[in-house]
Amino acid sequence: MTRPTQLESTEAGPYWEATRSRQLVLPWCTRCERPFWYPRAACPGCLSSEIEWREASGRGTVYAVSVQHNAALPEFKDQVPYAVALVELDEGVRFMTNIVKTDPLGVAIGQRVRLSWDPIEDGRAIAVFEPAEESSSGTDL
């Protein structure tokens, strides 16, 4: 899929840089020891500016989903229908993304997903998610 250029903010710079090596990182407040999303200069919980970036597991659960039948942008017209989802990462933050490599109409709230990547021409990548395979014990592989 050809994606429009992704703009970087000062706060999101470490996130975008990590995507070059296909790492999903989250800002963590070192004062209250909690991750948060979206990147910003201060922790939304305690307002501390003591923030570091930590790698996330890349696993989560679909919290909400919408299947788009009309492309939001002309670049996506050949991709419809596609699933836009709010994924609750295992770290506890919610992340807006696409669910790929599956029938978008089959994506369900509560479904386990894992990280995948959609490359951008400049070497960065968009974090997308795909269904996670479940083992016989009911946990992700």
Plain-language structure description:
With 141 residues, this protein is mostly beta strands. Helix content is 5%, strand content 36%. It is built from one helix and eight strands. The strands form two sheets. It has a five-stranded antiparallel beta sheet with strand order 6-5-4-7-8, with no helix packed on it. It has a three-stranded antiparallel beta sheet with strand order 2-1-3. The radius of gyration is 16 Å and the shape is globular. The model has no long low-confidence stretch (mean pLDDT 90).
> Strand order of the main beta sheet, please?
6-5-4-7-8
What structural category characterises the helix and strand content?
Answer: mainly beta
- Our Rg estimate from Cα atoms comes to 16 Å
Number of strands: 8
Q: Which stretches are low in confidence, meaning pLDDT under 50 for 5 or more residues running? A: none
Number of helices: 1
Biggest β-sheet: count, sense, barrel? 5 strands, antiparallel
Q: What form results from the Cα inertia axes?
A: globular
Average the pLDDT over all residues and give the rounded result: 90
Q: Give the proportion of residues in helices.
A: under 10%
For the termini, the CA-CA separation is 27 Å
Strand content: 35-45%
What oligomeric assembly is this protein in?
single chain
Write the H/E string, N to C: HEEEEEEEE
